[in-house]
Amino acid sequence: TELTCQRIQEFESQASSDLELRNNKIDELNR
Questions:
Q1: pTM for the model
Q2: Distance CA 13, CA 20 (A)
Q3: Using H for helix, E for strand and C for coil, what is the string for the chain?
Q4: How far apart are alpha carbons 7 and 14 in whole angstroms?
């Protein structure tokens, strides 16, 4: 269970960083 928990945290952190990058790109396009 600990391994899956760690994997989920890694996946969530990666997804959030991807979302931030996407939002930054959208902001640049809207300028």
A1: 0.57
A2: 11
A3: CHHHHHHHHHHHHHHHHHHHHHHHHHHHHHC
A4: 11
* Model pLDDT, residue 2: 86
Report the C-alpha gap between 6 and 4 in whole angstroms.
5
Burial zone of 27 (CB within 10 Å; 0-12 exposed, 13-18 middle, 19+ buried): exposed
Find the largest Cα–Cα distance for the chain.
45
For the stretch 1-31, pLDDT in tens is 788 999 999 999 999 999 999 999 999 999 8
Query: What would the two tokens of residue 10 be?
Result: 């890694």
